[in-house]
Amino acid sequence: MSSEPIDPVTAGGLAYVDDRMDEARAHWERAFLELRDAGQIAVAARVAALLGELHWSGLGNPSIGRGWLERGRRLLDQAGPCVEWGYWELARLACDRPNTAEVERSARRALEIAAEYGDTALHTRALADLGFALVSQGLLDAGFVHLEEALACVSSGELRDPWALSTTCCSLLSACDRAGDLERATEWLRIIRESVLMPAGGRPLMLGVHCQLALGGVLCTVGEWSEAEAAVRMTLDRTMGATASQRTQASARLAELKIHHGLVEEAAELLAPIEDTVEAAGPLAGLHLARGEPGLALAVLLRAIPVLGNDVLRRAELLARTTEAGLAGGSSEQAALAARQLRALATQSDAGVVDGLADLADGLLAASDGRIHDAGRHLESARSAFTRTARPLLAARAWLAFADITSSSDEAIAAARAAHAIALRLGAGSLRDRSAAILRRHGASSPRSALPRTLPELTARESDILAGLRRGDTNAQIAARLFLAPKTVEHHVSRVLTKLGVRTRAEAAAAAAAAESHR
To answer: Within 13 Å of residue 354, how many CA atoms lie on the same side as its CB?
Structure first.
């Protein structure tokens, strides 16, 4: 006996969660026409919203996506008050909407509609989007209250709609990523994998990709760079089902890591196809600064900052870079304006990292004006904030800035050695070189890294294996690339770890990076 045919809306949803985006599009386009022609305009509008998001983020067609959202809005104007207005408000993924104030307004309207119609899926999704918006605006305490309530709905199993479930998880993970909250990210990733991905056989793949991206972002923030690169690289595997938006984010994050390691040209190759996106602005500015092009860095930053609207956490990072680029390029007025904007953001935020960035900017400005006492006070406050919020790279920048201005040779050496220790731990090439230069200036030697500066002699095959470890590949991925059996790869990995004198794959990758940076 044949099973009953599946309606096109459901068929599109099944294709979506299986990452068959073009099939989902075809099913939903058919459903839209059938529903509209049958006079079911409110439901047709909801399908139009699905198509809008699918095109905008999934297929990389923003113009078509905007067109579908507008079609949905016109139909809802005809339909009048209905629950579908709530779904239309949340049609675009929160993490893809640069203006977080708009995300907040949409989420609050959706919450009201969900309460009126008793729609659990809409309520949960709106809670998560509202929490994400508040966290992005630097209101971490209020934001995480909403996010944790949404997480409770996800973990209880009461949220069944696959679209609402995956998009709710997207906002949950994006908030951890923005806040750099490793503790929450670790717990939430485990819950989402156990409650959502594992029961569905790892579907939808795009949610699995988002898990990896969020994990990579948090690991990068707290300085676990080898693990961060491994997590982000996984998302670019074609079998993972990443959307166009996710591939852009992954490329930008890999570029940022390359710049931290001093691999500037590799970063440039990753950024070349995405230089027009706001996601690339931070690493692109870092690339220009590393090349001694502060004017270009400033141009990139000034173009990107207005696009971010009220996204306090991302704006703060770019404003701090703007102060640095302005001072490096002789644009002191622009640097001072960015520092004032940063201080204003800090007063409206409870995120410690924003306080730290504001102090760092004020410290750099004071140093450039010769106000050494004020500079030292601000830089010490910045370093303390970055230490509390687990931002080791930023803490090292504050240490270095202080080492540059202090009149005490002992204080300069102590601060430079602190920065050097962080650089060695992270594998940050340019940071290590800057701290070493300050130490030499004061007649002090640089502490040595525990990692080997040169690699022991490896066979050609072992070198191939080490390259795979540095990419973050699994044994199965290395085996496929080298046409070997996974057991053979496992044997080679053990030999490589032994020869390098390290215990883990991440340590092997870090050793390879450290050795390359010393060539």
So the answer is: 26
Q: Which of 160, 191, 221 is the last residue of a domain?
A: 221
Q: Match 């993970």 to its residue by tokens.
A: 173
User: What would the pLDDT profile of 306-352 be if each residue is shown by its tens digit?
Assistant: 998 889 999 999 999 999 999 999 999 999 999 999 999 999 999 99
Q: How far is 49 from 57, CA to CA, in rounded Å?
A: 12
> How far is 274 from 251, CA to CA, in rounded Å?
8
Q: What is the count of structural domains for the chain?
A: 2
Handedness of CA 24, 27, 30, 36 (dihedral sign): negative
End position of a domain, from candidates 188, 221, 254: 221
C-alpha count within 13 angstroms, C-beta hemisphere, residue 289: 25
Are 101 and 310 spatial neighbours (Cβ–Cβ below 8 Å)? yes
Asked whether residue 30 carries a pLDDT value surpassing 80, the answer given is yes
Nearby residues of 194 by Cβ (< 8 Å), 6 or more positions away: none
**Cis before residue 204, ω within 30 degrees of 0?**
yes
Rg of the chain (C-alpha set):
25
Cβ-proximal residues to 108 (8 Å cutoff; 6+ apart), any chain: 126, 130
The helix/strand/coil state of 459 is coil
Amino acid occupying residue 449: S
| Secondary structure of 381-397 as H, E, C letters | HHHHHHHHCCCHHHHHH
DSSP secondary structure string, 235-267? HTSGGG---HHHHHHHHHHHHHHHHHHT-HHHH
What is the rounded distance in angstroms from the CA atom of residue 200 to the CA atom of residue 173? 19
Q: Cα(251)–Cα(275) distance, rounded to whole angstroms?
A: 11
Q: Which two tokens stand for residue 120?
A: 């659990």
| d(C-alpha 222, C-alpha 227), whole Å | 11
* Separation CA 209–CA 203 (nearest Å): 10
CA pair distance 457, 472, nearest whole angstrom: 21
In this structure, is residue 406 part of a structural domain?
no
Q: Which two tokens stand for residue 468?
A: 């795979």
In a domain, 308, yes or no: no
**How many CA atoms are closer than 13 Å to the CA of 120, on its beta-carbon side?**
13
CA terminus-to-terminus distance, the chain: 69
Half-sphere exposure of 233 toward its Cβ, with a 13 Å CA cutoff?
Answer: 16
Cα(438)–Cα(436) distance, integer angstroms = 5
Range of the domain at 507: 460-517
149, exposed or middle or buried, with CB in 10 Å at 0-12, 13-18, 19+?
Answer: middle
**CATH code of the domain containing 37:** 1.25.40.10
Answer yes or no: are the C-beta atoms of 192 and 207 closer than 8 Å.
yes
Q: Domain with 473 in it: what CATH number?
A: 1.10.10.10
264-317 per-position pLDDT tens digit: 888 999 999 999 999 999 999 999 999 999 999 999 999 999 998 889 999 999
